[in-house]
């Protein structure tokens, strides 16, 4: 028998594979790099990132999830960290940087233990136990809040905006945020339901940030359909139509034979009569404002204008739904069935010019369940960043009201959590204790990063924080402007509990998942088959030359 053993190929040619410690190192490195990228954006003194995409469009932001999405990350493990940010954004709307930085720190601390030959499965179990305990601790230290705590809700909104582009006008913007959230909030049997989609954020550059306003109704990026229509209508009775105010074309190809000029005149008159009839039906219903999802014929526009009716065409479906919630109108498909009950009400419908555009404002709606925040700012990039800050603030206030629980910010919650987790780790035995300790240490990355981003000495800050928390000062946090330890609760630095619990859950779950991977198989890229050469090209020859012998 021959000693030459035939090699067995299981995977396709070109497949890359890394096993065991190499796979773990690579995955942890990728995750850590993602966390490092956005770490400098954390806190009131966090810096911004400028991202330029392939087409040259610029995004300037310090919003974690926006940065990660714009960067178009390719590495599979790094993508898992981006998913953490997306989950945090979907669930709360804020705290994406916190979640990602925590995930990166958990993996960094895990790597040190892996180097000491602690098994990944033991680490994963220790992290899981610590995460469950962490959420328990967070529940216990949180404070209650309700919609009546107006001042505290404003403080939550201001905390969310601090360190972002909206900070210059955060007082006014926080007031708008709280009003908007309370306007669209539904409460049933003490259960609070808030759909953030009911708060429409309309951006227009031109003007100052502090000119941002809350419209008790809807702002449409539309102008009136006809120049003769009234610019404003008071005590508006609004009809919402989702069918076109036009004469329908026949579904099959049809020819109309006209033999005499008089027949042509009759045909046109009949067409005009039908179109005029549409305007009559609208007028008879009592409506003085029409929003149509489809088109409105020029003749119908003319007759509507004559009757002093305001109309806008091709309104988006999402805006139509928002209008139903704001004005109480029903969306009508058939003009013949319109009754006064179908009409919605608004105190004022007007066209106004903002920057270069004419917009339609539906204002003074009574008890609207859909409102609009018209965001203004000097440039497009400023307005975009204000919008992101407002989204964070709306998410935070909504999360606080839904859960009814809040905690203090400024790194105080994390410092308290780390202290109690250290105590908990002592109750564990064996190497799981090391994992729980590593978890507690990782949680402190938040106050440490806040200090670093503010140019403070992180070791001094953490030492002072630990000393304060050991003296039972639950809300002792860091003032990034002075470097001193403060009572974050008294200073009004408040965040919803959900930010912290969601960040801990997401970060620990993704860290555990990455730790448990010990084999990465990357498939070879399939090459596109070469198209067959056309006849007469001379086989492999170039440009019709005879093939080389």
Explained architecture:
By secondary structure, this protein is of the alpha+beta class. The chain has 3 domains: 16-144 and 407-522, GROEL, domain 1; 146-216 and 368-403, GROEL, domain 2; 220-362, GroEL (3-Layer(bba) Sandwich). It has 16 helices and 21 strands. Strands 9, 10, 11, 12, 13, 14 and 15 form a 7-stranded mixed sheet that branches. Strand 10, helix 8 (261-284) and strand 11 form a beta-alpha-beta unit. The longest helix has 24 residues, at 261-284. The protein is elongated and about 100 Å long.
Summarize this, please?
The chain has helices spanning 20-39, 64-70, 76-91, 96-115, 120-141, 150-161, 170-184, 261-284, 298-306, 317-327, 380-403, 412-426, 432-443, 445-453, 458-470, 497-515; strands spanning 16-19, 49-52, 58-61, 143-144, 186-188, 191-193, 199-205, 213-215, 218-220, 232-241, 289-292, 310-312, 331-332, 344-354, 357-363, 371-377, 405-408, 476-478, 485-487, 494-496, 519-522. It contains 16 helices and 21 strands. Residues 536-549 have low confidence and may be disordered.
Supply database-style keywords.
549 residues, alpha+beta, GROEL, domain 1, GROEL, domain 2, 7-stranded mixed beta sheet, elongated, disordered C terminus
Strand content: 15-25%
Structural class: alpha+beta
| CATH architectural group of the largest domain | Orthogonal Bundle
Query: What is the CATH T-level topology of the largest domain?
Result: GROEL, domain 1
The helix content, as a percent range, equals 40-55%
> How confident is the prediction overall: mean pLDDT?
77
Task: Give the CATH H-level superfamily of the largest domain.
Answer: GroEL-like equatorial domain
Domain tally = 3
How many helix segments?
16
The shape is elongated
CATH first level of the largest domain: Mainly Alpha
Number of strands: 21
* N- to C-terminal distance: 43 Å
Over the alpha carbons, how many angstroms does the gyration radius reach? 31 Å
Low-confidence stretches: 536-549
Report the sheet with the most strands, covering strand number, pairing sense and barrel closure: 7 strands, mixed
């Amino acid at each position: 028998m021959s000693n030459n053993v035939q090699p067995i190929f299981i995977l396709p040619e070109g497949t890359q594979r890394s096993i065991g410690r190499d796979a773990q190192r690579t995955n942890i490195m990728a995750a850590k790099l993602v966390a490092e990228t956005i770490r400098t954006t954390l806190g009131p003194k966090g810096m911004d990132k400028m991202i330029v995409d392939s087409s040259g469009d610029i995004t300037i932001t310090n919003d974690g999830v926006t940065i990660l999405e714009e960067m178009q990350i390719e590495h599979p493990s790094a993508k898992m960290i981006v998913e953490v940010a997306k989950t945090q954004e979907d669930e709360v709307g804020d705290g994406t940087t916190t979640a990602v930085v925590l995930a990166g720190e958990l993996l960094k601390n895990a790597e040190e233990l892996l180097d000491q030959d602690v098994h990944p499965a033991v680490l994963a179990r220790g992290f899981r136990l610590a995460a469950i305990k962490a959420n328990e601790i967070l529940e216990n230290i949180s404070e209650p809040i309700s919609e009546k705590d107006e001042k505290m809700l404003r403080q939550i909104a201001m905390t969310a905006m601090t360190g972002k582009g909206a900070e210059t006008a955060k007082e006014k913007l926080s007031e708008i945020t709280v009003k908007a959230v309370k306007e669209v909030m539904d409460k049933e049997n003490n259960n609070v339901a808030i759909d953030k989609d009911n708060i429409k954020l309309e951006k227009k550059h031109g003007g100052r940030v502090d000119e941002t306003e809350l419209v008790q109704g809807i702002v449409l990026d539309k102008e009136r359909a006809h120049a003769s229509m009234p610019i404003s209508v008071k005590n508006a009775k609004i009809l919402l139509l989702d069918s076109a105010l036009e004469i329908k074309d026949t579904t099959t190809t049809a020819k109309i034979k006209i033999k005499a000029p008089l027949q042509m005149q009759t045909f046109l008159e009949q067409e005009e009569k039908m179109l005029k009839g549409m305007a009559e039906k609208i007028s008879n219903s009592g409506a003085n404002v029409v929003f149509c999802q489809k088109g409105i014929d020029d003749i119908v526009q003319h007759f509507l204008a004559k009757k002093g009716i305001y109309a806008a065409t091709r309104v988006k479906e999402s805006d139509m739904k928002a209008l139903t919630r704001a004005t109480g109108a029903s969306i009508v498909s058939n003009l013949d069935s319109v009754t006064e009950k179908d009409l919605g009400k608004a105190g004022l419908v007007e066209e106004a010019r903002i920057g270069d555009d004419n917009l339609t404002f539906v204002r003074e709606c009574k008890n609207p369940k859909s409102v609009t925040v018209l965001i203004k700012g000097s440039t497009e990039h400023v307005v975009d960043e204000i919008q992101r800050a407002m989204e964070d603030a709306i998410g935070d206030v909504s999360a606080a009201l839904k859960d009814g629980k809040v905690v203090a910010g400024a790194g105080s919650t994390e410092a308290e959590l780390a202290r109690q987790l250290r105590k908990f780790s002592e109750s564990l035995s064996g190497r799981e204790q090391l994992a729980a300790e590593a978890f507690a240490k990782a949680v402190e990355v938040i106050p440490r990063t806040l200090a670093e981003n503010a140019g403070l000495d992180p070791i001094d800050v953490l030492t002072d924080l630990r000393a304060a928390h050991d003296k039972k000062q639950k809300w002792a946090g860091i003032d990034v402007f002075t470097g001193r330890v403060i009572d974050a609760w008294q200073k009004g630095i408040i965040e919803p509990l959900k930010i912290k619990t969601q960040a801990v859950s997401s970060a620990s779950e993704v860290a555990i998942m990455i730790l448990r991977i010990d084999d990465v198989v990357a498939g070879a890229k399939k090459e596109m088959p070469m198209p067959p050469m056309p006849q007469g090209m001379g086989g492999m020859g170039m440009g019709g030359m005879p093939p080389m012998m």
